[in-house]
Amino acid sequence: MVITRSGLVLGATAVTLTTIAVTSLGIHSQGQALFKESPKELVDEVWQIINRQYVDGTFNKVDWLAVRKEYLNKSYSNKQEAYKSIREMLKKLDDPYTRFMDPEEFKNMQVDTSGELTGIGIQIGLDEKTKKLTVIAPIEDTPAEKAGILAKDIITKINGKNTEGMDTNQAVSLIRGEPGTMVNLTVLRSGQEKEFKITRAKIEIHPVEYSQKQTPAGNIGYVRLKQFSANASKEMQQAIRNLETKQVAGYVLDLRNNPGGLLFSSIEIARMWMTNGTIVSTKGRLAEEVEREVANGRALTNKPLVVLVNKGSASASEILSGALQDNKRAVLVGSQTFGKGLVQSVRPLDDGSGLAVTIAKYYTPNNRDINKHGIDPDVKVDLTDAQLQQLWLKERNKIATLQDPQFAKAVEVLSKEIAQKGNTRAEKN
């Protein structure tokens, strides 16, 4: 099975709690017939994929050959027994990013974030250090965000069920459901437990919003990118081109609470802002460079740029902001980002189930490994939990205004960048 560029995702513990059908999976009826006769074939198929592709050649110090012998010596009378063994087998890797999904879970995994979705609108993952079920970010204007869920919230209970030891697949199956139904989440935030009752809904996501703003920095373009979906680059292109016609002096690109998405989307968008330079490199099993993506000389603008980030800016957001920062194309303002620097391929298996495998790490142009740490902004503006709730929940009309502390600082920084560029142009003349 060929892994296409669109099958590469970032920080793949991230599961968006929405439902979307995954099509064109290349599942063969011959394989399905084979599986019906021998569930053991699926166990071996998973083992072989890990053996060939897993990012760590030591398999996190697990004797992977011994694992194969252990699980292929078992007898399997049905696919549920095979699924259980596969999960046990993968658990030995101690990697929350590499996981098995049964056919229903795989069907409901959001890989290509386009179309109308059903759910509550959060992305979750297992924290690598604590192994706790953690919110990466709520998606803007969804039930989860409106209810008050924040990035880095630890989900301790789902409908009263303790999440200790629960993987993301189990959590998703408990949280998702039909529109109009309720789910109760208990989260731990700053040492205190909070209860949220959230109504599931149909969600339509447009990844880009933009506007022209009159500010102390002058006439500027404001672009908010909510996630790196399949159509994000197209909408970003339209936004920049439209704002260029309005003769904006500079831009604020808002990546706050953007949990990431598709790898190719982040690369395409970086090329719209960068004329030259490296965007990102990925390194595989032997720490060799697998691929390096660079700018192609087709930037849509070279005007001053400030990028807003926070702890909900993850994976593809960190690739874009890291590329712009390392190439000195933009100034980053806000708070430290989430810290997800792993690339994963998502593959269909012969019975309709799926496997997500960590295959590489990504590095910023300056060869920074930001996994677990994140990216530090050039200008730090941290907000308290109370400030975050006030701004993003109670007073959303203040977002991207001068009453938004991070945006206000971005405008201040952009004003200096615009003035500096003007002085440089004058000197050249």
Keywords:
429 residues, six-stranded antiparallel beta sheet, six-stranded mixed beta sheet, 2-enoyl-CoA Hydratase, Chain A, domain 1, alpha+beta
Task: Describe the model.
- With 429 residues, the protein is of the alpha+beta class.
- It has a domain at 208-340 and 362-421: Alpha-Beta Complex (2-enoyl-CoA Hydratase, Chain A, domain 1).
- It has 12 helices and 20 strands.
- It has helices spanning 29-37, 39-53, 64-72, 79-91, 103-107, 143-147, 168-175, 232-245, 263-273, 316-326, 385-394, 405-428, and strands at 8-10, 15-19, 99-101, 116-126, 133-138, 154-158, 161-162, 182-189, 192-199, 201-204, 208-215, 218-225, 250-254, 278-283, 289-294, 305-309, 331-334, 342-348, 354-363, 379-380.
- Strands 1, 3, 14, 15, 18 and 19 form a 6-stranded antiparallel β-sheet that branches.
- Strand 4 (116-126) and strand 5 (133-138) form a beta hairpin.
- It is globular and about 75 Å long.
- 47% of the residues are buried.
- The model is unreliable at 1-7, 10-36 and 110-115 (pLDDT under 50).
Radius of gyration: 22 Å
Helical content band: 25-40%
Name of the CATH architecture of the domain at 208-340 and 362-421: Alpha-Beta Complex
Major β-sheet profile: 6 strands, antiparallel
Number of helical stretches of at least 4 residues: 12
How widely separated are the two ends? 57 Å
Beta fraction: 25-35%
How would you concisely characterize the structure shown here?
The chain is an alpha+beta fold. It is 31% helix and 27% strand. The longest helix has 24 residues, at 405-428.
